[in-house]
Structures are given as structure tokens and as C-alpha cells.
Amino acid sequence: MKTSTEMKHFLFLIKTRKDRLASLSPEQMQQHVANVRQFIESLISSGQIKVAQTVEMSGIALSGFKGAFQEGGS
Q: What is the CB neighbour count within 10 angstroms for residue 36?
């Protein structure tokens, strides 16, 4: 049996609510961004992820079960 050392690639999305960051002061927001950047850079340097980028927070959310999808969800 042949084993492969190649890892499959996946897309991982993290969804947050828009208002979660709205209550932060400019200083807190700056610290939050620095913390997230440091965390992501550590994942990249350890080889756990290849790349990360933000996604525009617009559009709709879909949720579903067993092929039946509906607008909304969390």
C-alpha cells in the first residue's frame, strides 16, 4: 500500500458578527488586529496554513441540513 505525504488543501472560513468589533476603542481595535496578525503569522510559519486573507463582510448566510438550504442561519 502506497502512502502519500501530500496533505489535501481545504478552505477554512471564520465567521464573526459585524457588531462584535464595533464596541472596541481605536486602541483596542489596533491591539486586536495586531493579535490576529501575530496568530496567523505563527500558523503560516509553522506550516499549519499556507495563506490567510480577509473576506468582505457582506452578502447572506446560508444554512442547511441534508441538502435543504435556507437563507439565514448563524
A: 13
Distance separating alpha carbons of residues 48 and 43, to the nearest angstrom: 5
* CA pair distance 70, 44, nearest whole angstrom: 35
Mean pLDDT in residue range 42-66: 81
Q: What pTM, to 2 d.p., does this model score? A: 0.59
Q: For residue 63, what are the β-bridge partners? A: 70
Burial zone of 52 (CB within 10 Å; 0-12 exposed, 13-18 middle, 19+ buried): middle
Residue 62 backbone phi and psi in degrees, to 5 = -115, 140
Query: How many angstroms separate the CA atoms of 46 and 56, rounded?
Result: 27
Separation between Cα atoms, residue 37 and residue 52, nearest integer Å: 10
* Helices vs strands, H then E, count in the chain: 1, 2
